[in-house]
Sequence to fold (300 residues):
Amino acid sequence: MLTYADDRTPAQFDAGYANFIDAAVVERWEAHFREASRDALRMPHVELAYGPDGRNRIDLFPARGAAPDAPVLVAIHGGLWFLFDKWMMHFLAPAWTTAGVHVACPNYRLAPGASLDEIVADCRRALGFLHRERSTLGIGSGPMVVTGHSAAGQLAAVMASTDWPEFDARLPGRLVRGLVGVSGFYDIEPFHGTGFQSQTRFEQDAYRRFNPINLVRPDMPPGLLITGERESGLLHAMMDGYARLLGGAGVPVATMDVPDEDHFSVLARLGDLSSEVYRRALSKVREWAAMERGGRAGHA
Fold:
């Protein structure tokens, strides 16, 4: 786990992960994202099955008229690994598809019925499916960028650090070409000692094996890490600590601490055309796509 500026008790970690969120906050933002999902589902989209479980599904929102090498933004929903659904990320579809970026929102099995190993495997299978079927799906050959919020920041970071040929020999090593983490849990080992453990019931060793800070490697894709100014000190410490580790390994990484935003409002800005969060993230995705095109041209 990270070394923090001050010694933290389990209760302090509990409060840090809770991040000033209570039932009323969850109810408010759940209603917001559900309404946004209803609007997004009026757009052209398709639900895809990437596995046998009922939650092994992806909602794909293609960008109409997009270039053949347009990026694909894979948006993994948060919810402490035991809450929510792919509808939580549908709000991204209008703004991002307008910008020529395909949006894919995968589901995964939830804790405590699924272990962390199974949840990570579901996310990996979803990305592998999108890559293998991209010609059939009409989403071209562009780079795949992964984003995740809160606990799904951990899942997105694990996707960015995955050795894809080891997971599936049919997949390329550089399957993921960028990471946008929003209010992510990049140090999850302390989670085992919090009150949330009764909800996830993950094995302590799983927190260690899938802890993003333990998985940093030099050939990871570049990243943009975002946190709201009004989030807990723990969230900021995790973002800064993970960014230092990535930078120390030679991985290009930028951070944003967004003024006046909290845990859910900063996520909402990622789909807001007028927001600096959206503009910065889109700029990074386009930058990574241009790097991908340049790399292909260099090998032509």
User: Anything to note?
Assistant: The beta strands are 46-49, 57-61, 72-76, 102-106, 144-149, 176-182, 223-228, 253-258.
